[in-house]
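name: query_chain
kind: protein
chains: 1
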Amino acid sequence: MAEENILNGKKILIVDDEPDIIETIEELLDMCDVKSATSFEAAAQLLESSTFDIAILDIMGVNGYELLSIAKTKKITTVMLTAHALNIINFAKSMEGGACAYLPKDKIDELVDFLADILEHGNDACGLLGGWLDRLNEYYERKFGPGWLDELP
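structure:
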């Protein structure tokens, strides 16, 4: 599968306070070199001591925005993955903070496709212009309401 080829051997950091989420992502990304952390402290140390192609960060429970700031200074492409912080305010905060994408955990089964798209298209796949948003717009319209992008703070 082409998606998996571009991910082969990529260094990925997963940060989530829910071990089952980390385990699920590790299984999905078995073609990658994955490191994981369940706390802010462990994640911050990994960000400072290693290089990653992509960081996948939860927002709640691990101080995801502070980790996003660290990842941005290290020029690591960052994807926010959330369930409890799934709202327009956190979407906007993630984009303003430099996240490449803001993904709902209930779309985790599509993570390989999202990450492959980001790696294939680089910065063109990030932010509000990214293909990830095109693929999730209908989902977000159901969650946030029609015209939700016009409502961004």
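note: The chain has a mean pLDDT of 92.
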